[in-house]
Amino acid sequence: MKNITTYRVIYGDTDQMGVAYYANYLRWFEIGRTEFMREAGVPYDQAERDGVFFPVTEVQCRYRKPAVYDNLLRIETTVESLNRAALRFNYRISLEGERSALASGWTKHVCLDRDRKLVRLPKPYADRLGLDGG
Predict the structure, then answer these.
(1) Model-level pTM?
(2) Is 127 a known active-site residue?
(3) Does 87 fall in a domain?
(4) Each residue's pLDDT tens digit, 27-76
(5) 47 partner at 20 to 30 Å CA-CA among 24, 88, 127, 134?
(6) CATH number, residue 41
């Protein structure tokens, strides 16, 4: 399963050099992940009401070209199962209508319950996310 969403770079996303500040790419990863979860029928607010939490435990981002003010970004997001209690979202950010990536990366998440204990990803969630196991 893949989600594609767009985001337009606002002036506040840029630094003094006129390019998108590097940490904003992590925000854009989050936008992609949030929309992926929503489209899969597992919006974050519902997961939290169900007592399922997905904190980020690792992140990696490779920057290739800068984004600048008013660029329309295309954020592609996919997910893969790492094991019964961890998953990884993969991201590719490019300019809308162009092939080459501005950045790519991933975030690793674990599945926790309300007591912040590591738990197996519930089967209904694994099914909705298109993952094996659960």
Answers:
(1) 0.92
(2) no
(3) yes
(4) 999 999 999 999 999 999 999 999 999 999 999 999 999 999 999 999 99
(5) 24
(6) 3.10.129.10
